[in-house]
Amino acid sequence: MASSSRAQFSSRIGFILAAAGSAVGLGNIWGFPTQAASNGGAVFLFVYLLMVFALAYPLLVAELTIGRYGNANPIKSLRSIWPQQRGIAALLGIAGMIAVSMILSFYAIVAGWLFGFLVGPILEAIGFTTAANWLESFSTSRNLILMIVFMIMTIMVVRNGVANGIERWSTRLMPVLLVLFVVMTGYILTQEGAMEGLKMFLVPDFSHFSSGLVVSAMGQAFFSLSLGVCSMMVYGSYLRKDTNIPKTAAQVALLDTSVAFVAGLLILPAMFVAQHNGVEIYNDAGALLDSDTLVFSVLPAMFNTMGTGGVFIGILFFVLMVIAALTSSISMLEVPVACATEELQQDRKVAVWWIGGLITIFSSIIVFNFGDMFGLVISLTTEYAQPILGMCFALLVGWIWKRDQVLQEIKEGYPELEQSLFWKIWPWYVRVVCPVMMLMVFFA
């Protein structure tokens, strides 16, 4: 076990906001509403909610428990629960670290675009039209410069450590995010056309139900809780021993799901407001146009139809998106940084810069080979690496880690665990149900 002098979250609310910040990212605010809009709205919402609690929540408990038991970086934590196969355990930790670094490399590009769309309208309002157009139109130079700006922001937060960096910024940014959301949703729902979007999101039409929809919903639940890439394992390792893991994990999952739900309440009505204002959102066949870049086409077009108020609402929306992206990117960078500071005994400030630098270089390679690499890296990490690693962690906790050790670890913050319904279900559920469900997703 690592020493008890290791960094920790100073409060439970600090941890919940940081973990929810990690989970709440572009996946919830953009991925979820887009998926919902493409898959019949309410039906997708119901299946997604089911998946969060049937699959993602039990795995979240597993990853947090591994992290807190190891009280160290993922490589060391995985070794501590599988001492007979230290090499394989270390490889799993390294695989998670590489996967999360690759996710950050494409995430930083998208976050850079958001930054461009945030600053663009401000520049245009004060007369710098050329600069605004450059920020808002696709080009290699823009993608590169904005990605570097975003990576530097991420590095600066992680450099300051757990309590002073990650926790301090998550506890500031997450409440701002939630307030902005509520204000914007309230505003959008008063606009013409919004009720159509609301109806699509909340009233189920079961004709849309399909096996593909179930797979999309399961994938979305998985990515939105940052599972399978060691982020939650690292955050778990900063938890105090008296934390009730099942309860805390439920709070993180609830907060994350609430944000996805509110994002749906904002974005689906916003799509129909845009349509009402003359913006095309569906093609003749009834499929969404530009589903992956909707945020950069439909919403700015909608804000433009709202006059002066629209400019202000647009800036607020992209402030919100940048905050969501930043709270996720700091948790991703923390994974390799925690490994470097403990395995290589490096100073955090040194490790952050060279690791951040390497990810920035890889991200630059994606920028210069955008057509070939961008989609490929997303698909490799989110469709393959995350589910496979998530399944490995479930198998480790279910089959390899000694049951009484798992019990003792969770009991530290939950003394009445053995009598609880949670303990009667969770151990065999993680052993059998989670891996089987994930294999189904994978082969579908």
From TrEMBL:
<dbReference type="InterPro" id="IPR000175">
    <property type="entry name" value="Na/ntran_symport"/>
</dbReference>
<feature type="transmembrane region" description="Helical">
    <location>
        <begin position="384"/>
        <end position="401"/>
    </location>
</feature>
<dbReference type="GO" id="GO:0016020">
    <property type="term" value="C:membrane"/>
</dbReference>
<dbReference type="Pfam" id="PF00209">
    <property type="entry name" value="SNF"/>
</dbReference>
<feature type="transmembrane region" description="Helical">
    <location>
        <begin position="42"/>
        <end position="66"/>
    </location>
</feature>
<keyword id="KW-0472">Membrane</keyword>
<feature type="transmembrane region" description="Helical">
    <location>
        <begin position="144"/>
        <end position="162"/>
    </location>
</feature>
<dbReference type="InterPro" id="IPR037272">
    <property type="entry name" value="SNS_sf"/>
</dbReference>
<feature type="transmembrane region" description="Helical">
    <location>
        <begin position="248"/>
        <end position="274"/>
    </location>
</feature>
<protein>
    <submittedName>
        <fullName>Sodium-dependent transporter</fullName>
    </submittedName>
</protein>
<feature type="transmembrane region" description="Helical">
    <location>
        <begin position="12"/>
        <end position="30"/>
    </location>
</feature>
<keyword id="KW-0812">Transmembrane</keyword>
<feature type="transmembrane region" description="Helical">
    <location>
        <begin position="294"/>
        <end position="326"/>
    </location>
</feature>
<feature type="transmembrane region" description="Helical">
    <location>
        <begin position="351"/>
        <end position="378"/>
    </location>
</feature>
<feature type="transmembrane region" description="Helical">
    <location>
        <begin position="169"/>
        <end position="189"/>
    </location>
</feature>
<keyword id="KW-0813">Transport</keyword>
<feature type="transmembrane region" description="Helical">
    <location>
        <begin position="87"/>
        <end position="115"/>
    </location>
</feature>
<feature type="transmembrane region" description="Helical">
    <location>
        <begin position="209"/>
        <end position="236"/>
    </location>
</feature>
<dbReference type="InterPro" id="IPR047218">
    <property type="entry name" value="YocR/YhdH-like"/>
</dbReference>
<keyword id="KW-1133">Transmembrane helix</keyword>
<feature type="transmembrane region" description="Helical">
    <location>
        <begin position="421"/>
        <end position="443"/>
    </location>
</feature>
